[in-house]
Amino acid sequence: MPHTLHSVRETVETLWPLAGAEGWDAPGLLSGDPAAPVERILLAVDAVAATVDEAVETNADLLIAHHPLLMRGVTTVAEDRYKGSLLAKLIRNDCALIAAHTNADVVAEGTSAVLAAKLGLTDTAPIAPAADGVTGIGRVGTLTEPTTLGALARVLADLLPPTAGGVRAAGDYHQPVSRVAVCGGAGDSLLGADAVRGADVYITADLRHHPASEAREQAVLGGGPALLDVSHWASEWLWLETAARQLRDALPGVEVEISELRTDPWDFAILQ
After folding, report:
1. Which residues fall within 8 angstroms of residue 137, CB to CB, at 6 or more apart?
2. Fold of 5-104
3. How far apart are CA 63 and CA 165, in angstroms?
4. Which of 48, 75, 86, 231 is the most exposed place for a label (fewest CB within 10 A)?
5. Which of the 8 DSSP states describes residue 43?
6. Which residues are recorded as binding a divalent metal cation (predicted)?
C-alpha cells in the first residue's frame, strides 16, 4: 500500500514524539496534504532556499527539516518575505514540510546522542533527563581513553562537516579530558547543569560571550569544564544519517536522501 503524508507523519511522530518537544518549540507538519502520496523524502537541518530548491529539483514529496520554519511569530506568508516564499514554492511543487526539532533531540538516538556516539563516549546519560531518566536534552559520558583538550578539538573538527567557524576552544590546549558533555545545537542554557559542571569539557554551539565568560571564570574559581564551541548546523547534521536509517526501516519503498548542502549561515572567517 502506498505511503501517504498522513502515514509518514504518523511514523515521524512515533520516532520523535511531539510530547518530547519543548514548550516553546513548533515541530510537526507545517504544510502539505495528508492524503498526498510520499515516495521520496529529503532530510535537512534547515528549511532554507537552498534545501527547498534541492527538494523541488529532486522531486521530493516531503522535506523533513530539523529546524521548524515557523518556530517564531509569523504574521504573514506573503511571498516578498522569505518564509512565505519558501512555503509557496513547496506548496506549488507538491512538496510537504515536516519539522522534527527538540522532539528529535531528546530521544535515545537524538542529535546529542548521535554526537556522543560518534565521539566514542561510553556510559552516556542525558544532561537534563526527562522523567523516564533515559531521554532528555544533551548527553554526558566518558571517553574510552583520556586525551587532551587540543586533541579532542582536532577529533571534533575532523568529525564534523567543515564550516567557516571551525571549532573554538576555551581552556588549556594540553588539559587532560575524559568526562565529556555534549549538546547539539545551542546549549548555553545547560552551562550551569550539574552534569556539565562535572565534566572536563562541554561541547555545544552558539556560545555567547557572557555565558561562556562566566562559565570559564567560575571554572577558575571552583571547577568546571573547558568549552568547545562548534557550528550549530554541523553539530546537528550528523543526526541526519541516523534519522534516514530509521525512516528507511519504518517506511519500506520510500526513498530517503540526506541533503549535503551546508546551511551554516557563515561563509568565511578571517583570522587575526
Report:
1. 102, 105, 106, 112, 126, 127, 128, 183, 190
2. 3.40.1390
3. 27
4. 75
5. E
6. 66-67, 105, 232, 236
Distance CA 40, CA 55 (A): 9
DSSP at 16: S
Q: pLDDT of the chain along its 272 residues, tens only?
A: 789 999 999 999 999 999 999 999 999 999 999 999 999 999 999 999 999 999 999 999 999 999 999 988 788 999 999 999 999 999 999 999 999 999 999 999 999 999 999 999 999 999 999 988 889 999 999 999 999 999 999 999 999 999 999 999 999 999 999 999 999 999 999 999 999 999 999 999 999 999 999 999 999 888 899 999 999 999 999 999 999 999 999 999 999 999 999 999 999 999 88
C-alpha to C-alpha distance for 160 and 151, rounded to whole angstroms = 14
Alpha-carbon torsion (101, 107, 110, 111), positive or negative:
positive
Q: Which of 136, 101, 91 is CA-nearest to residue 13?
A: 101
Which residue has cell 506573503?
78
Type of residue found at 229: D
- Residue 196, judged by CB atoms within 10 A of its CB (0-12, 13-18, 19+), counts as buried
Q: What is the CATH number of domain 106-233?
A: 3.40.1390.30
Closest CA to 63 of 33, 97, 88: 97
The domains of the chain are located at: 5-104, 106-233
Binding-site annotation: residue ranges: 66-67, 105, 232, 236
Helix, strand or coil, per DSSP, at residue 141: strand
CA–CA dist 205, 13 (Å, integer): 26
Please name the amino acid found at residue 173.
Y
